[in-house]
Amino acid sequence: MTALAPRAHELGIVGCHTCGSACSADLPRCPRCGSPLHRRKPDSLARTWAFLIAALILYIPSNVLPVMYTSMLGRGEASTILHGVVEFWKSGSWDIALLIFIASVAVPSTKFLVLGTLLVTVQRRSTWARQQRARLYRFVELIGYWSMLDVVVVALVSALVQFHLLGTAEPRLGIVFFGLVVVLTMCAAMSFDPRLIWDDADGSE
Amino acid sequence: MSEQNRPTDAPPSPVPPVPVVRRPRWNVGLIWLVPVVAALIGIGMVAHNWASEGPSVEISFITAEGLEAGKTQVKYKDVVIGLVDSIRLAKDRTHIIARVKLDKAASSFATTDSRFWVVRPRFGTTGVTGIGTLLSGAYIGADVGVSSDVSKSFIGLERPPAVIHGSPGRRFVLRAADIGSLDIGSPVYYRRIQVGRVVSYELDKDGKQMKVDVFVDAPYDRYVTVSSRFWNASGVDLNLDASGLKLSTQSLATVIAGGVAFQSPPGPRDATPAAEDAEFVLFDDLQTAMAPPDGEPEYLQMRFEQSLRGLGVGAQVDFRGIVVGRVVSIDLDYEADKQSFPLIVGVVIYPQRFGRAGEKIAQLGKDESDKNTRMAAFVKPLIAHGLRAQARVGNLLTGQLYIALDFMPNAPKTEFDASARPVQMPTVPGSFDQLQEQMTGIVEKLGKIPFESIGKHLDSTIVQLDKTLRQVNDSTLPQFNATLAGAQGTLGSAQQAVSANSPMQQSLAQTLAEMQRAARSLRALTDYLGVHPESLLRGKPVDPALRDAPEKNSKGNPP
Q1: Each residue's pLDDT tens digit, B24-58
Q2: Which of A27, A57, A76 faces B35 most closely, judged by CB atoms?
Q3: Which residues of B touch A46 (CB under 8 A)?
Q4: Model confidence pLDDT, tens digit, residues B125-135
Q5: Domain residue extents for chain A
Q6: Which has the closest alpha carbon to B351: B333, B331, B337, B366?
Q7: Which residue of B has its CA nearest to A29?
């Protein structure tokens, strides 16, 4: 691939992170928008790792703790995410169950896996399946915020279902953790620099 | 920084100098605070959870109805103190075991005398409880005792306890023949105020008596004295016996819910408050409760040859108008040699009901140890003297019978077997039966009268009579009429004869006048004769009056 085109650093050019302007690598700031210029995102790997690990840690309580407390006619019940999925599946609403499962379980897990894979491969300066990895990264960025679906659902239901004795829904601590997980994975995805995928094993930073 | 310094430090050039970017070393590590904080939160939560985790106990219930693992709460005074963790069947499948995770603060509930029960909606005669659980689902109620011995497994109560530990008041034990309509939670009344409730009941080990635990709240518990009497105030006491129909009730609530009432019998009594767990007898009704104690009953047996329709178990045994016992059994027997079915009636007699007589009887036979022998020895001379049992009608309307013990001087002599056990009391047929027999005899005699032939004879007689009458009509009556006419004529002439101006009357009047004159002359004659009786012999003298008169005149009348 290196044969195809010269690399930016070979030409002494650095792309601005903010406005995308190609600047001279010598400039400390973008002459157009004034933001600091970096050849790569600074401390990309360390930040991504940190966010990812924090998200992983918080993912445990977000799944163990109940996310929502619903009470119908005085009969209250606190349910975790997986519990809700199982309940919906059992009651026959497999479509909703699937939706919640994808948004709340599959997407965060995919993000952990993908980001982990990307980080490991980048650190090893692996040249394996670079194009696919780059696509994978864009995919992760795209789906990242869809995990907020769960948080939004809980927020909406809690706000709307307030009929006191007939039925109430209250958010529980788990949803906070889940929200943090989503935010942290998004931060991790943002702090990852996909260009690192393309850096050669011999390429210097 | 370097950018700011650039215009002054560096000479102007088309290519700016390579900036020296210095990163502080902590900048790298700062991002790692994020996972560290996350980890700390996680650890903190785990630690908190671990710290707040109380003991885990196992409670067995007959059924897991209403219980759900992970949902059913354990509450004490409506405060959640734990959660059912898991529910499983016991190995022998006779009950279920609910594992309950108690809160740290509720670890004192894991002691030996704690009680657990399932609070479900209950619709009982004493009211509705647990209505809140109708919608919210069942929960496990808890009550803690005073013990500090740790226990991890409990047997759940099937019903909520009537008394929560630590309630002020006292518990008493009542012994009853049966439970009546009492139930756990049935009220206890004192002068018709509810002062407590039935806590539990159980059958004695020998199955002959009920043991009923009642709890009387403070301050009413002090009214339970050593001499208090408890009675069953359950429902409507409808009593139909030889003394008529009786209906009594404690209060309207007890009609439905049943209840126990207590009171001290009238008169000066020992007013010492009864001790906790003191035992009392639960009487069937107020009357028996207030009656003086009956003492040990004596058993007697009687044989009746006639029907005892109307005699029931519980019927009174009466001695000279005093109820001294009751019928406890009525059995049919069969005697092959006589081809008869005698009725064997068992009665119990309470000697204390005989009052002073009973005391004297007790004095008589106190040297005899066996009470049956004593009884036999006592009744033998009385039977010789005519003591018999008799089934009598107590209520003509209902035909209820009672057993009367009385002296029948003309009762047939019977052999009293003093060795028979139980003691046999000879009987005589009831007065009503005798009456019935006499009536039957009369009816039989009436039946023997030949009404048919009498009727026939009567019929022919009437025919004869009819003929006779016709004859009378035809022949006799006209003659009779003629006779009557003749008689009338005779009477008419008779009347004429005696009428006022008939010649007969006139001649009669003349005759009478003649008679009168004759009588007058006769009187003159008798008067004359009275003066001149000699005239009968000499005849009538010459008129003396004429002779004497001149003399008299000459002498008497001087010229």
Answers
A1: 555 557 778 888 888 898 888 888 888 878 888 99
A2: A57
A3: 28, 31-32
A4: 666 777 777 77
A5: 1-39, 41-198
A6: B366
A7: B3
Residues with pLDDT less than 50, chain A: 1-2, 201-205
Those residues with Cβ within 8 angstroms of residue A191's Cβ, 6 or more apart along the chain or in another chain: A41, A43, A44, A47, A48, A51
Residue-wise pLDDT tens digits, B414-425: 777 777 778 888
Q: Which residues of A touch B19 (CB under 8 A)?
A: 28
A180 vs B: CB within 8 A: yes
Q: Which residue has the tokens 């889940």?
A: A178
Give me the residue from B32, B42, B135 closest to A57, CB to CB: B42
Interface membership of B15 toward A (CB under 8 Å)? yes
Q: Does A82 touch chain B (CB under 8 A)?
A: no
Buried b (16+ CB within 10 A) or exposed e, A153-162: bbeebbeebe
CATH 1.20.140 describes domain A41-198: yes
In B449-502, alpha helices (H): 451-471, 477-498
The token duo for B204 is 């004695």
Instruction: Check if B1 contacts A (Cβ < 8 Å).
Output: no
Q: Residue A76 and residue B136: Cβ atoms within 8 Å?
A: yes
The pTM score is 0.48
Classify residue B489 as exposed, middle or buried by CB count within 10 Å of its CB (0-12, 13-18, 19+). Answer: exposed
Amino acid identity, residue B534?
A: E
Task: Look up residue B200 and give its two tokens.
Answer: 């539990």
Quick one: which of A64, A175, A181, A194 has its CA closest to A112?
A: A181
pLDDT tens track for B385-435 = 888 888 888 777 777 888 888 888 777 777 777 777 788 888 888 766 777
Mean pLDDT for chain B overall: 81
Which of A170, A161, A156, A150 has its CA nearest to residue A77?
Answer: A170
**Could you give the angle at the alpha carbon of B310 between the alpha carbons of B306 and B316, nearest 5°?**
100
Residue from the list A50, A75, A76 with its beta carbon closest to the beta carbon of B34: A50
Please state, for a pLDDT cut of 90, what percent of chain B lies above it: 10
Nearest to A115 by CA among A93, A133, A91, A96: A133
Q: How far apart are CA B86 and CA B81, in angstroms?
A: 16
E strand or H helix at B141: strand B139-143
Closest residue in A to B29 (Cα–Cα):
A46
Going edge to edge, which strands form the sheet with B79-89? B115-119, B139-143, B73-76, B79-89, B96-103, B53-61, B153-155
Residue type at B390 in one-letter notation: Q
Within B271-408, strands assigned E span 279-283, 298-304, 316-319, 322-332, 343-349, 387-395, 400-407
Domain range list for chain B:
49-155, 169-290, 298-428, 514-556
B45 in contact with A, Cβ within 8 Å: yes
Q: Look at residue B34 and give its three-state secondary structure.
A: helix
